[in-house]
Specification:
By secondary structure, the protein is α/β, with parallel strands linked by helices. 51% of the residues lie in helices and 13% in strands. It is built from 10 helices and 10 strands. The strands form 3 sheets. The protein has a 5-stranded parallel sheet with strand order 4-3-5-2-8, sandwiched between helices. Helix 7 packs across helix 8. The longest helix has 32 residues. It starts with 9 loop residues before the first helix and ends in a 16-residue tail after the last helix. The C terminus is likely disordered.
Length: 342
Amino acid sequence: MAETAPALTPLTRRLRRQTKRARRYFVACSVRAMIALCGLLPFAITRRLFPPLLGFFAHRMLRADIYRHLDLAYDHSLAAAEKKRIARRVAHNLGLLVAEVLALLRNRLPAGYIDDTEFKALDLKGGFLGLSAHIGNWEVLAWQARKQWPNVDTAVVAHRHANRHINRLIERMRRAFGVSTIYQEASPRRTIRMLTQGKIVAVAPDQDVAHIAGMFVPFFGKPAWTPTGPAFLACMAKAPLLLCFTRRTANGLRLVCPAPLYPNPDAPREEEIKRLTKAWSDAVEQHIREQPSDWMWFHKRWQTTPERLERRRVRRKCSQEKVDTLRPLAQPAENQPTENRA
Protein backbone atom coordinates (compact mmCIF):
# COMPACT_ATOMS: atom_id res chain seq x y z
CA MET A 1 0.00 0.00 0.00
CA ALA A 2 1.39 3.39 -1.02
CA GLU A 3 2.44 5.66 1.80
CA THR A 4 0.72 9.03 2.05
CA ALA A 5 2.71 12.21 2.55
CA PRO A 6 2.64 13.47 6.13
CA ALA A 7 0.31 16.40 6.78
CA LEU A 8 1.96 19.79 7.24
CA THR A 9 1.93 21.20 10.73
CA PRO A 10 0.41 24.67 11.35
CA LEU A 11 3.92 26.02 11.99
CA THR A 12 5.21 24.67 8.67
CA ARG A 13 2.26 26.12 6.79
CA ARG A 14 2.76 29.49 8.45
CA LEU A 15 6.48 29.50 7.62
CA ARG A 16 5.72 28.66 3.99
CA ARG A 17 3.27 31.54 3.72
CA GLN A 18 5.70 33.95 5.33
CA THR A 19 8.61 32.94 3.10
CA LYS A 20 6.64 32.67 -0.15
CA ARG A 21 7.57 36.18 -1.29
CA ALA A 22 11.28 35.62 -0.58
CA ARG A 23 11.26 32.22 -2.33
CA ARG A 24 9.59 33.65 -5.41
CA TYR A 25 12.08 36.50 -5.55
CA PHE A 26 14.96 34.02 -5.27
CA VAL A 27 13.52 31.90 -8.09
CA ALA A 28 13.13 34.97 -10.31
CA CYS A 29 16.71 36.09 -9.62
CA SER A 30 17.99 32.61 -10.43
CA VAL A 31 16.06 32.50 -13.70
CA ARG A 32 17.28 35.99 -14.63
CA ALA A 33 20.90 35.01 -13.92
CA MET A 34 20.59 31.79 -15.93
CA ILE A 35 19.11 33.68 -18.90
CA ALA A 36 21.93 36.24 -18.79
CA LEU A 37 24.59 33.54 -18.51
CA CYS A 38 23.16 31.17 -21.11
CA GLY A 39 22.46 34.07 -23.46
CA LEU A 40 26.21 34.58 -23.80
CA LEU A 41 26.59 31.16 -25.39
CA PRO A 42 26.40 30.86 -29.20
CA PHE A 43 23.22 29.34 -30.59
CA ALA A 44 25.26 26.53 -32.14
CA ILE A 45 26.11 25.40 -28.59
CA THR A 46 22.76 25.99 -26.85
CA ARG A 47 20.94 24.19 -29.68
CA ARG A 48 22.98 21.07 -28.93
CA LEU A 49 23.25 21.47 -25.16
CA PHE A 50 19.74 22.41 -24.00
CA PRO A 51 17.60 19.71 -25.71
CA PRO A 52 19.35 16.72 -24.11
CA LEU A 53 19.92 18.53 -20.79
CA LEU A 54 16.42 19.93 -20.29
CA GLY A 55 14.87 16.96 -22.05
CA PHE A 56 16.38 14.55 -19.52
CA PHE A 57 14.61 16.23 -16.59
CA ALA A 58 11.47 17.30 -18.46
CA HIS A 59 10.83 13.78 -19.73
CA ARG A 60 10.83 12.36 -16.21
CA MET A 61 8.63 15.14 -14.86
CA LEU A 62 6.08 15.22 -17.69
CA ARG A 63 5.92 11.75 -19.21
CA ALA A 64 3.03 10.56 -17.01
CA ASP A 65 0.82 13.44 -18.17
CA ILE A 66 1.94 13.03 -21.78
CA TYR A 67 1.15 9.29 -21.79
CA ARG A 68 -2.25 9.89 -20.21
CA HIS A 69 -3.24 12.55 -22.73
CA LEU A 70 -1.98 10.50 -25.67
CA ASP A 71 -4.08 7.56 -24.49
CA LEU A 72 -7.10 9.84 -24.19
CA ALA A 73 -6.62 11.42 -27.63
CA TYR A 74 -5.84 8.21 -29.52
CA ASP A 75 -8.05 5.81 -27.50
CA HIS A 76 -5.05 3.73 -26.37
CA SER A 77 -4.29 2.85 -30.01
CA LEU A 78 -0.69 4.11 -29.93
CA ALA A 79 2.01 1.54 -29.28
CA ALA A 80 4.13 1.98 -26.17
CA ALA A 81 7.21 2.66 -28.28
CA GLU A 82 5.42 5.43 -30.19
CA LYS A 83 4.20 7.08 -26.99
CA LYS A 84 7.70 6.97 -25.57
CA ARG A 85 9.11 8.50 -28.77
CA ILE A 86 6.59 11.35 -28.70
CA ALA A 87 7.18 12.02 -24.99
CA ARG A 88 10.95 12.17 -25.46
CA ARG A 89 10.56 14.43 -28.47
CA VAL A 90 8.26 16.82 -26.57
CA ALA A 91 10.86 17.12 -23.80
CA HIS A 92 13.62 17.56 -26.39
CA ASN A 93 11.63 20.34 -28.09
CA LEU A 94 11.35 22.25 -24.82
CA GLY A 95 15.12 22.56 -24.77
CA LEU A 96 15.09 23.74 -28.39
CA LEU A 97 12.43 26.33 -27.56
CA VAL A 98 14.58 27.82 -24.78
CA ALA A 99 17.65 27.95 -27.01
CA GLU A 100 15.67 29.63 -29.80
CA VAL A 101 14.15 32.28 -27.53
CA LEU A 102 17.56 33.13 -26.06
CA ALA A 103 18.95 33.50 -29.57
CA LEU A 104 16.04 35.73 -30.59
CA LEU A 105 16.60 38.01 -27.60
CA ARG A 106 20.15 38.68 -28.83
CA ASN A 107 19.22 38.58 -32.53
CA ARG A 108 21.47 35.58 -33.06
CA LEU A 109 19.08 33.18 -34.72
CA PRO A 110 20.77 32.05 -37.97
CA ALA A 111 19.40 33.34 -41.25
CA GLY A 112 17.11 30.79 -42.85
CA TYR A 113 16.42 28.97 -39.57
CA ILE A 114 12.76 29.99 -39.88
CA ASP A 115 11.11 29.16 -43.19
CA ASP A 116 8.61 32.02 -43.45
CA THR A 117 7.60 31.56 -47.09
CA GLU A 118 3.90 31.08 -46.29
CA PHE A 119 3.97 33.91 -43.77
CA LYS A 120 5.42 36.39 -46.24
CA ALA A 121 2.76 35.45 -48.77
CA LEU A 122 -0.03 36.70 -46.48
CA ASP A 123 -2.00 39.57 -47.97
CA LEU A 124 -2.82 41.29 -44.68
CA LYS A 125 -1.64 44.68 -43.45
CA GLY A 126 -2.96 44.69 -39.90
CA GLY A 127 -6.19 44.67 -37.98
CA PHE A 128 -6.29 40.90 -37.48
CA LEU A 129 -6.25 38.44 -34.61
CA GLY A 130 -3.33 36.05 -34.93
CA LEU A 131 -4.26 32.65 -33.54
CA SER A 132 -1.76 29.89 -32.85
CA ALA A 133 -1.26 27.03 -30.40
CA HIS A 134 1.48 25.64 -28.16
CA ILE A 135 3.03 23.84 -31.10
CA GLY A 136 6.71 24.00 -32.04
CA ASN A 137 7.87 27.44 -30.91
CA TRP A 138 4.86 29.75 -30.68
CA GLU A 139 6.99 32.56 -29.22
CA VAL A 140 8.61 33.29 -32.59
CA LEU A 141 5.28 34.19 -34.19
CA ALA A 142 4.94 37.60 -32.52
CA TRP A 143 8.58 38.32 -33.39
CA GLN A 144 7.88 37.30 -36.98
CA ALA A 145 4.84 39.59 -37.11
CA ARG A 146 6.93 42.53 -35.92
CA LYS A 147 9.52 41.67 -38.55
CA GLN A 148 6.97 41.57 -41.37
CA TRP A 149 4.87 44.53 -40.19
CA PRO A 150 7.39 46.73 -38.31
CA ASN A 151 5.11 49.77 -38.26
CA VAL A 152 2.09 47.94 -36.82
CA ASP A 153 1.67 47.68 -33.04
CA THR A 154 1.53 44.08 -31.85
CA ALA A 155 0.26 42.62 -28.56
CA VAL A 156 -0.24 39.13 -27.17
CA VAL A 157 -3.03 37.94 -24.89
CA ALA A 158 -1.44 35.96 -22.07
CA HIS A 159 -2.03 34.44 -18.65
CA ARG A 160 -0.50 36.34 -15.73
CA HIS A 161 2.23 34.34 -14.00
CA ALA A 162 1.70 33.74 -10.26
CA ASN A 163 5.25 34.93 -9.53
CA ARG A 164 5.13 38.68 -10.20
CA HIS A 165 8.91 38.83 -10.62
CA ILE A 166 8.81 36.13 -13.29
CA ASN A 167 5.83 37.91 -14.83
CA ARG A 168 7.80 41.16 -15.14
CA LEU A 169 10.70 39.23 -16.65
CA ILE A 170 8.41 37.73 -19.31
CA GLU A 171 6.97 41.16 -20.05
CA ARG A 172 10.47 42.57 -20.58
CA MET A 173 11.33 39.71 -22.91
CA ARG A 174 8.23 40.41 -25.00
CA ARG A 175 9.02 44.12 -25.08
CA ALA A 176 12.47 43.21 -26.42
CA PHE A 177 10.58 41.73 -29.39
CA GLY A 178 8.53 44.93 -29.65
CA VAL A 179 5.40 43.21 -28.34
CA SER A 180 3.13 44.38 -25.52
CA THR A 181 1.05 42.15 -23.22
CA ILE A 182 -2.71 42.04 -22.65
CA TYR A 183 -3.76 39.82 -19.75
CA GLN A 184 -6.72 37.47 -19.92
CA GLU A 185 -8.58 39.21 -17.11
CA ALA A 186 -8.43 42.59 -18.88
CA SER A 187 -11.51 44.10 -20.50
CA PRO A 188 -11.94 43.05 -24.15
CA ARG A 189 -12.48 46.68 -25.11
CA ARG A 190 -8.75 47.33 -25.40
CA THR A 191 -8.29 44.36 -27.73
CA ILE A 192 -11.28 45.33 -29.86
CA ARG A 193 -9.98 48.90 -30.08
CA MET A 194 -6.57 47.68 -31.22
CA LEU A 195 -8.10 45.48 -33.91
CA THR A 196 -10.37 48.24 -35.23
CA GLN A 197 -7.35 50.57 -35.37
CA GLY A 198 -5.53 48.16 -37.69
CA LYS A 199 -3.21 46.64 -35.06
CA ILE A 200 -2.26 43.01 -34.45
CA VAL A 201 -3.25 40.88 -31.46
CA ALA A 202 -1.93 37.34 -31.01
CA VAL A 203 -3.35 34.56 -28.85
CA ALA A 204 -2.71 30.83 -28.25
CA PRO A 205 -6.05 29.57 -26.85
CA ASP A 206 -5.45 25.80 -27.00
CA GLN A 207 -5.44 25.32 -23.23
CA ASP A 208 -8.20 24.39 -20.80
CA VAL A 209 -9.02 27.51 -18.75
CA ALA A 210 -12.30 26.87 -16.93
CA HIS A 211 -12.85 30.43 -15.69
CA ILE A 212 -12.80 31.85 -19.24
CA ALA A 213 -15.96 31.93 -21.35
CA GLY A 214 -16.03 28.96 -23.67
CA MET A 215 -17.91 26.05 -25.14
CA PHE A 216 -17.35 22.32 -25.51
CA VAL A 217 -15.87 21.44 -28.90
CA PRO A 218 -14.80 17.94 -30.01
CA PHE A 219 -10.99 17.77 -29.85
CA PHE A 220 -9.57 14.40 -30.91
CA GLY A 221 -13.15 13.16 -30.57
CA LYS A 222 -13.43 14.21 -26.90
CA PRO A 223 -15.36 17.27 -25.64
CA ALA A 224 -12.84 19.95 -24.69
CA TRP A 225 -13.61 23.30 -23.04
CA THR A 226 -12.57 25.77 -25.74
CA PRO A 227 -12.34 29.57 -25.29
CA THR A 228 -14.82 31.55 -27.38
CA GLY A 229 -12.95 34.81 -26.77
CA PRO A 230 -11.04 34.83 -30.10
CA ALA A 231 -14.22 34.34 -32.11
CA PHE A 232 -16.05 36.96 -30.03
CA LEU A 233 -13.27 39.53 -30.57
CA ALA A 234 -13.17 38.80 -34.31
CA CYS A 235 -16.94 39.29 -34.59
CA MET A 236 -16.98 42.48 -32.53
CA ALA A 237 -14.04 44.05 -34.39
CA LYS A 238 -15.03 42.58 -37.79
CA ALA A 239 -11.45 41.35 -38.06
CA PRO A 240 -10.15 38.09 -39.57
CA LEU A 241 -8.67 35.25 -37.56
CA LEU A 242 -5.21 34.52 -38.97
CA LEU A 243 -4.20 30.95 -38.13
CA CYS A 244 -0.45 30.36 -37.99
CA PHE A 245 1.50 27.42 -36.57
CA THR A 246 5.15 26.45 -36.34
CA ARG A 247 6.36 23.05 -37.45
CA ARG A 248 9.76 21.66 -36.59
CA THR A 249 11.95 20.51 -39.45
CA ALA A 250 15.43 19.03 -39.66
CA ASN A 251 16.90 22.51 -40.19
CA GLY A 252 14.74 24.66 -37.90
CA LEU A 253 11.14 25.87 -38.03
CA ARG A 254 8.58 26.29 -40.78
CA LEU A 255 5.60 28.60 -40.47
CA VAL A 256 2.32 27.07 -41.66
CA CYS A 257 -0.53 29.51 -42.36
CA PRO A 258 -3.94 28.09 -43.36
CA ALA A 259 -6.48 30.38 -44.95
CA PRO A 260 -7.71 33.13 -42.57
CA LEU A 261 -11.17 32.81 -41.02
CA TYR A 262 -13.46 35.77 -41.69
CA PRO A 263 -16.53 36.48 -39.53
CA ASN A 264 -19.82 36.83 -41.37
CA PRO A 265 -21.33 40.17 -40.27
CA ASP A 266 -24.78 39.12 -41.52
CA ALA A 267 -24.95 35.91 -39.48
CA PRO A 268 -26.31 35.80 -35.89
CA ARG A 269 -23.43 36.55 -33.54
CA GLU A 270 -23.86 33.49 -31.30
CA GLU A 271 -23.93 31.12 -34.26
CA GLU A 272 -20.91 32.83 -35.81
CA ILE A 273 -18.93 32.57 -32.57
CA LYS A 274 -19.66 28.83 -32.44
CA ARG A 275 -18.71 28.36 -36.09
CA LEU A 276 -15.39 30.23 -35.79
CA THR A 277 -14.49 28.52 -32.50
CA LYS A 278 -15.03 25.06 -33.96
CA ALA A 279 -13.18 26.00 -37.15
CA TRP A 280 -9.98 27.14 -35.43
CA SER A 281 -10.10 24.21 -32.99
CA ASP A 282 -10.38 21.77 -35.91
CA ALA A 283 -7.40 23.47 -37.58
CA VAL A 284 -5.30 23.07 -34.41
CA GLU A 285 -6.22 19.38 -34.17
CA GLN A 286 -5.37 18.75 -37.82
CA HIS A 287 -1.96 20.40 -37.41
CA ILE A 288 -1.20 18.31 -34.29
CA ARG A 289 -2.21 15.08 -36.03
CA GLU A 290 0.22 15.79 -38.87
CA GLN A 291 3.17 15.97 -36.45
CA PRO A 292 2.09 15.00 -32.89
CA SER A 293 5.50 15.47 -31.26
CA ASP A 294 5.35 19.24 -31.87
CA TRP A 295 2.46 19.83 -29.41
CA MET A 296 2.93 20.21 -25.66
CA TRP A 297 1.00 17.10 -24.63
CA PHE A 298 1.40 17.75 -20.91
CA HIS A 299 -1.27 20.49 -21.02
CA LYS A 300 -4.49 19.34 -19.34
CA ARG A 301 -6.60 19.95 -22.45
CA TRP A 302 -9.52 17.76 -21.32
CA GLN A 303 -9.52 18.66 -17.62
CA THR A 304 -12.89 20.43 -17.70
CA THR A 305 -15.71 18.02 -18.46
CA PRO A 306 -19.45 18.74 -18.74
CA GLU A 307 -19.96 16.95 -15.42
CA ARG A 308 -17.25 18.96 -13.62
CA LEU A 309 -18.55 22.20 -15.07
CA GLU A 310 -22.08 21.43 -13.91
CA ARG A 311 -20.86 20.56 -10.39
CA ARG A 312 -18.90 23.83 -10.31
CA ARG A 313 -22.01 25.78 -11.33
CA VAL A 314 -24.12 24.05 -8.66
CA ARG A 315 -21.52 24.84 -5.96
CA ARG A 316 -21.36 28.46 -7.11
CA LYS A 317 -25.17 28.71 -7.06
CA CYS A 318 -25.39 27.19 -3.56
CA SER A 319 -22.69 29.55 -2.28
CA GLN A 320 -24.53 32.55 -3.70
CA GLU A 321 -27.82 31.40 -2.16
CA LYS A 322 -26.09 31.03 1.20
CA VAL A 323 -24.68 34.55 0.93
CA ASP A 324 -28.10 35.93 0.00
CA THR A 325 -29.63 34.16 2.99
CA LEU A 326 -27.06 35.48 5.48
CA ARG A 327 -26.90 39.02 4.11
CA PRO A 328 -29.99 40.31 6.04
CA LEU A 329 -28.54 38.91 9.26
CA ALA A 330 -25.32 40.85 8.69
CA GLN A 331 -27.03 44.25 8.39
CA PRO A 332 -26.28 46.82 11.12
CA ALA A 333 -28.66 46.85 14.05
CA GLU A 334 -29.91 50.36 13.26
CA ASN A 335 -31.15 49.10 9.89
CA GLN A 336 -33.21 46.34 11.48
CA PRO A 337 -36.91 47.08 12.27
CA THR A 338 -37.54 47.58 15.98
CA GLU A 339 -40.40 46.04 17.93
CA ASN A 340 -43.17 48.27 19.25
CA ARG A 341 -43.18 47.93 22.99
CA ALA A 342 -46.08 48.88 25.23
